[in-house]
Amino acid sequence: MEKSKIIKYAELIAKVGANIQKGQEVNLVADIEIKDFVLILVEECYKAGASKVNIDWTDDELTKLNIKYADEEKLSHLTSYEKAKQEYNIENHPVRIYIESSDPDGLKDLDQEKYGRILASKGKEIRKYRDKYDDYCQWVIAGVPGLKWSKKVFPNDSDEVAKEKLFELILKVSRAFDGDPIKNREIHNANLVEKANKLNNLKLHYLHYTSKNGTNLTVELLNNVKWEAGGEYTKGTKIYFQPNIPTEECFTSPNKFGTNGVVYSTKPLSYRGQIIEDFSLTFKDGKVIEAHAKKGEDLLKNMLKLDENAAYLGECALVPFHSPINDTKTLFFSTLYDENASCHLALGTAFPMLIENYENMSEEEIKKVNINKSIVHTDFMIGTDDLKIEGIDFNGKKVTIFENGDWSKTF
User: Fold this and answer.
1) In sequence order, what are the beta bridge partners of 130?
2) Tens of pLDDT, residues 366-392
3) Which of 27, 107, 254, 304 has the highest CB neighbour count under 10 A?
4) What is the average pLDDT across 217-239?
């Protein structure tokens, strides 16, 4: 890959995704395998105005060793050092950048029951801190190919060819391969925002999803929760940032108790280093009451029990079937990319910043809005080439939102 393209991609992450402001600190999370890219990205962060870039290195092999040998009780709670870092985040609101590069199968040999208990316990503690700084910080997630991820996507190619091919695809679907990535992103973002505005103007009460694969799902929306696309603003400081590179979605958070029917997944879900495939979920009054999978069913059911709200929906996202990602005919084995290939839903926590007048609401007022809150947020893909989504407004008027998997002519 030409270094100039990699530098422009790093610049896109720092300046548009994270939108680093002069004097802000940056917390960067990345796998040790992609050190070369991290060095480029750190320089772009400083060029964008960062005062300090802090790096948390990750590695699947180290994670497996910790889960295998460390005391479960010790791993299940924040240490004083980890609490101090969380307190620092509350006080300083650093920008957060996450680089996805790890092996989709990297944690498959773990004791998943133990790992799940640790994540659930520690996640609840972390959530208490993050609730105090999440909406005040810019954050972004983007991808860079690691070797094992590349070989998962392109198993028949040599190591170098596989990495080159995956990096090229990542740049293309991120609109960072040709031309000016920042300008490309501005144009794309404007198009997404236009569609989100149209959805908001429709004042929808329900979405009805149907597909020949058996999906027949009704999702209730809330009149005080908006649709959003492309980017969002930090609370208080109103800094605009774009958290997902790439993104193709318009999304909202539904009524926690208003989902009924059955939905079928259409792409494998890479979850905790394992793959869940060909699964279906049946909802009643918002909660999953039945779950089946041809592969990874036990893992799927464990995921639904991580906390008391993990089995409720937190997001509905609309993505055309003929998106740039889906048009590559490539399964990325990464939720960041595969969720932007077609329509998806997410189990777990919702997005409170989508509530109208959220900035001026108290915690008690936010709790009264029927959107979900959980320690997890797990996206899964449901788009097909025949998916139909019908919207029904609060007066009962119907409008076709999606037809044959793509936006209807209304959009």
Assistant:
1) none
2) 888 999 999 889 999 999 999 999 999
3) 254
4) 94
